[in-house]
């Protein structure tokens, strides 16, 4: 007999993460080899554009892991859109990932009303799409080979 609970529990979440990680490592020779290498460490990567007053005009946050750059967030203040700032942030993140962290690929998710065309113009290819996530919106997963 089991009792189901829906309470948020940080300790249980960490336990679950650890156990899944152990199972994945045991179940995959590729994951096991990765975990034994320096590429197994997930490292945050952030690029910021500050205006003349030191305020954030744009930013990119992500992480590198397993020779991949994963872009989580890319935002440019509306006053600065269209001047190439987003392209500069993305290029800098890709440069750091490629040259400083030995990444060979990049991936990200974006919604249809956000920036799929922006990323396609910068060499990203659509690898997947989920319609109606959330309802009425399409989410795209895009990847790029880094130089």
From TrEMBL:
UniProt-listed InterPro entries: Acyl_CoA_acyltransferase, GNAT_dom
Domain (N-acetyltransferase): residue spans on this chain: 1-147
Organism, as annotated: Streptomyces brevispora
Descriptive protein name: GNAT family N-acetyltransferase
Transmembrane domains' residue ranges: none
Pfam families reported for this sequence: Acetyltransf_1
């Amino acid at each position: 007999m089991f009792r189901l609970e829906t309470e948020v529990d940080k300790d249980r979440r960490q336990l679950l993460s650890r156990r899944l990680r152990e199972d994945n490592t045991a179940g995959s020779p590729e994951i096991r080899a990765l975990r034994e290498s320096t590429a197994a460490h997930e490292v945050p990567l952030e690029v910021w554009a500050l205006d003349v007053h030191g305020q954030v005009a744009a930013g990119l946050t992500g992480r590198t892991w397993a020779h991949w750059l994963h872009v989580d967030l890319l935002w440019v203040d509306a006053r600065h859109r269209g001047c190439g700032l987003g392209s500069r942030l993305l290029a800098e993140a890709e440069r750091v990932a490629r040259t400083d962290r030995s990444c060979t690929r990049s991936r990200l998710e974006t919604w249809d009303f956000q920036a799929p065309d922006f990323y396609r113009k910068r060499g990203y290819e659509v690898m997947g799409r989920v319609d109606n996530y959330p309802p009425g919106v399409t989410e795209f997963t895009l990847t790029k080979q880094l130089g």
